[in-house]
Amino acid sequence: MSLKPKILIAFYSRTGVTEALANSIASGACEAGAEVRLRRAREFVTEDVMERSPGWREAAEEMNRRFEAPTEMDAEWADAIVFGSPSRFGAPAAELKAFIDSLGGLWFQGRLNGKAASAFASSSTTHGGNETTILSLYAPAAHLGMIIVPTGYADPILFEAGTPYGASSVSENVARAPSPADLAVARFQGRRVAKVAAALRGIHDHDASAT
């Protein structure tokens, strides 16, 4: 059987900062031989609410043209899921959390047990909640039976940017694009998750062939 890992990157992004990290994680995973699905969680507020924040609706429409919404089928297809979100008061955005909450059926059937999970985040300000947001995403991953894969300090780039929990970026309240070091951490995270997912898939395939 092929050990080519399948990676779902399920993220929410409003201004494109988290999207940029997601794209770099995808690049790293592809470098490691993975098949990748990039999916953007959707808003569930009304357009009136979106209009209160200039550019929100337009940016959402543009990103939604580029990315499909994540589904249960995507999660079941994947060998690993990488969750990404801007920090909202130190926690994941409701849009991404709504997708995670939709996975209850797969949880009940044990269909996510043994898959790899990782996470990344962005914030508007320094100390704006990136680490707590990533750690908050690992709690539901544990409930879903997934195997958590942090970045650690497994690559020298982690001493320049990111966190030991996952890639991150600070946009300084102006939606500033992630730095080259931020993106390098994200690519490393993609490679690391792909390698772990491939190893886990090899174990699962071996167990299946032995039964």
Automatic annotation (TrEMBL):
Q: Name one GO cellular component term.
A: membrane
> Which InterPro entries does the entry link to?
Flavodoxin/NO_synth (IPR008254), Flavoprotein-like_sf (IPR029039), Flavoprotein_WrbA-like (IPR010089), FMN_Rdtase-like_dom (IPR005025)
Q: Which PANTHER family match?
A: FLAVODOXIN-RELATED PROTEIN WRBA-RELATED, FLAVOPROTEIN-LIKE PROTEIN YCP4-RELATED
The family note in this entry says: Belongs to the WrbA family.
What NCBIfam families does its record include?
Answer: flav_wrbA, PRK03767.1
Task: Write down what this protein is called.
Answer: NAD(P)H:quinone oxidoreductase
Keyword list, A-Z: Flavoprotein, FMN, Oxidoreductase
- GO molecular function (one): NAD(P)H dehydrogenase (quinone) activity
Checking Gene3D superfamilies in the record gives:
3.40.50.360
Q: Which SUPFAM superfamilies match?
A: Flavoproteins (SSF52218)
